[in-house]
Amino acid sequence: MITPTIQPILCLDGVSKQFGGLNALTDVSFSLNEGEVVGLIGPNGAGKTTLVNVVTGNLRRSSGRILFKSEDVGLQKPYQAARRGLARTFQIVQPFPAMTVLENVTAGALFGAGAGSLGDARDMAMQSLEFVGLDGLADRPAANLALAARKRLELAKSLAMNPKVLMLDEVNAGLNSSEIDGALALIRRIAERGVTVLIIEHLMKVVLSLSKRLLVLHYGQLIADGPSAEIVADERVIEAYLGAKFAARLKELNHG
Amino acid sequence: MRSGFPLYAAMVAGLLILATTPLYADNYVVRTAAIVAMYGALATSWNFIGGFTGYPSFSTAAFFGLGAYVGAICQRNGIPMGLAWAIATVTVAGFAALLGGIILRLRGHYFAIGSIAVVELCRLVVSSWSSLTGGGDGLNLPLMAWPPEQLMRFFLFVMLGILLASLIATILVDRSRLGFGLRCIHQNEDAAAMVGINTTAYKIAAYTLSAMFCATAGAAYASWTGYIDPTDSFQIVMTVKVVVMALLGGAGTILGPALGAAAFVLLEELFWANFLDWNRAILGVVIVLLIFFLPGGLLSLGVLRRLRAATGSAKAEGGK
């Protein structure tokens, strides 16, 4: 569990979000420590993307507090979140289609990281592109990239913003298994740079291989928060999400 | 990066052609040149919000008309002409910034309709506020007791000055953080906010820039004609014309809108002169054809050729 010496970088305290009469998030509280890689799982419609939208200011929380470095950021706009270092990727990739790959990433460096000049921003962008392995496609229009490359572009753009917390909303959706392995290696290297990462995923393989800690959302409520091994054995989580079959297989693996 | 030299050369050549008309042509041609310069400035202004940012604004006539009225009222109260134009520019820029904060919350078609409503609203307010604006009777401005040639030449240079100022502003914006941010907003506004662009502030800046030069042109136009009234100052037709000009030349490019304005004004003059009964219909057909077959605008013809040449040489260099 959380040791008191580590300062949480992002802390949610009783956050709720209602759409009319629908409770999308109910009293969600957790904190992320600096440099941690945490997985956020839950069935479809559990409120995972809503949670990210609330943290980055795309949606305004109905109640509760969102603390970033002990500062209440519950009312921030998306651009303010970006400048503070709360970066995210979208489930459906959001490039600037007519711009080149390099220009896309330059936008992140110029506005998100606050690069001094266009030239500096371009240098930072090039570094991000090299990091994700897209430097060879720098001059291609973003619209021409295949899905795997577009997902990498999203990552490069977020990285160029010099984020403190990076929220990855299903970056692996729609990728084949070899592409997923590449993406996993990349996310690991991002975490090694000290960026706090929150991974939202459907694929258990991905979450379990990356994060030691898991959060589980179910019908907008946080039903579990703890070490991955404990979470996948938790009765409620199994019921809500994994299904008995997977849990049984897992038990066999662990005891067999 | 765009290469700067051909751009500047084309710009200077175009301005010189317009500026030298008094040397060899009659007053009709000089007047046409002044009108080209004026519409060039209006279309170049529209480009900030419509071209760079991708917000289809139809407010041009509102800014033009308000500029005309602010300038006229100042001049009638004894403020010298140049100062009156400056006051009109600043006042209307302030008005656009305040208004932008409200209507730029709308997107796409909704924004287009909202921006048209601004023109009508301004016209109604101006024609109702008789104590200040003279209502439907309009306003007379102090006449300039100059011979017609001299007057014509003077306003040609004034309009060229406004056009030049708007072009310089365009070049500066294009190369700055602001221009880059506006292009990002055009491509994908949500993604632009997510990379840290204060989209509201950027859109307001673009809208204000698009209003400023229209106001100067409006105030200068009022001094030029010596009389303004609400229906003439706030014309929906003008608003639509300016958008068509910018699209015709190439929205989002630097010289495109001014070029489109020149082409449009010349075509319009040609059809007025030769086909009095059919001129509007012919003009309409020409516009439809151009937009169907040349959606990138006139400038895309030359740009394409240059691009092809550039990529050709790059491939040769790469040798792969």
UniProtKB/TrEMBL annotation, chain A:
Residues 10-244 form the ABC transporter domain. The keyword ATP-binding applies. Keywords: ATP-binding, Nucleotide-binding, Transport. It holds the Pfam family BCA_ABC_TP_C. GO terms for biological process: D-alanine transmembrane transport; L-alanine transport; L-isoleucine import across plasma membrane; L-valine import across plasma membrane. One of its GO terms (cellular component) is plasma membrane. GO terms for molecular function: ATP binding; ATP hydrolysis activity; L-isoleucine transmembrane transporter activity; L-phenylalanine transmembrane transporter activity; L-valine transmembrane transporter activity. PROSITE patterns: ABC_TRANSPORTER_2. The keyword Ubl conjugation does not apply. This is Amino acid/amide ABC transporter ATP-binding protein 1 (HAAT family).
Automatic annotation (TrEMBL), chain B:
It comes from Ancylobacter aquaticus. It is a multi-pass membrane protein. It is found in: Cell membrane. CDD domains: TM_PBP1_LivM_like (cd06581). Keywords: Cell membrane, Membrane, Transmembrane, Transmembrane helix. The chain crosses the membrane at residues 49-71, 83-104, 151-173, 236-266, 281-304. This is Amino acid/amide ABC transporter membrane protein 2 (HAAT family). One of its GO terms (molecular function) is branched-chain amino acid transmembrane transporter activity. Coiled coil: none annotated. Its main location: membrane. GO terms for cellular component: plasma membrane.
